[in-house]
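Sequence design from tokenized structure. All designs in this work follow the same two-part layout: the structure record, then the generated sequence. An example of the structure record is given first.
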């Protein structure tokens, strides 16, 4: 089973999500399709394809707006891995899923995801599954948050009415606009 198939098996139809980086969730044929977010103008010499611009530690989504986030090879590109993990935790609803695909051993990944600056509240994750391949490790993390976050998430879901674009903040920049204004 491919990593994309493992991801697809964890996500229910109708869930709103985002694909950060390499487009792994897009290849999983999810419905609705995840919102693609990218920070590089090209990958492997080809122009990158995405819907919106965002950095691993600064995503264009409202708090608790996503049912899932797939981050493929994003943590290794993050200037501050702990800040990226905190951002992923922020945008995914309580009980939602963060799928992290990295060429890191699970123990190293777990350390990166749990090392938070003392100024930030502790992030609560539950490891829901680990799949290792010769080239990468898929770690499924279930997000845990308090009662207030759960209530805010439900209010957001009612307002969004299943429309994926409702998860985006008003200042979200389209990837095409960002790429057109970026050199090299």
């Amino acid at each position: 089973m491919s990593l994309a198939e493992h991801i697809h098996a964890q996500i229910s139809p109708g869930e709103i999500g985002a694909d950060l980086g390499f487009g792994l969730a897009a290849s999983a044929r999810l419905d609705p399709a995840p919102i693609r977010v990218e920070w590089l103008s090209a990958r492997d010499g080809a122009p990158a394809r995405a819907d919106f611009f965002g950095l691993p530690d600064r995503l264009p989504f409202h708090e608790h707006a996503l049912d899932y986030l797939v981050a493929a090879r994003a943590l290794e590109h993050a200037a501050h891995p702990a800040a990226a993990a905190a951002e992923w935790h922020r945008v995914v609803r309580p009980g939602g899923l963060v799928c992290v695909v990295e060429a890191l051993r699970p123990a190293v990944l777990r350390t990166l995801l749990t090392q938070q600056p003392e100024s930030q509240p502790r992030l609560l994750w539950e490891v829901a599954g680990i799949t290792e391949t010769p080239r990468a490790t898929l770690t499924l993390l279930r997000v845990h948050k308090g009662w207030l976050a759960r209530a805010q998430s439900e209010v957001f879901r009612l307002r969004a009415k299943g429309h994926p674009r409702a998860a985006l903040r008003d200042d979200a920049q389209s990837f095409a606009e960002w790429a057109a204004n970026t050199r090299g």
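The mean pLDDT is 78. We note this feature because it recurs in several other targets discussed in the main text.
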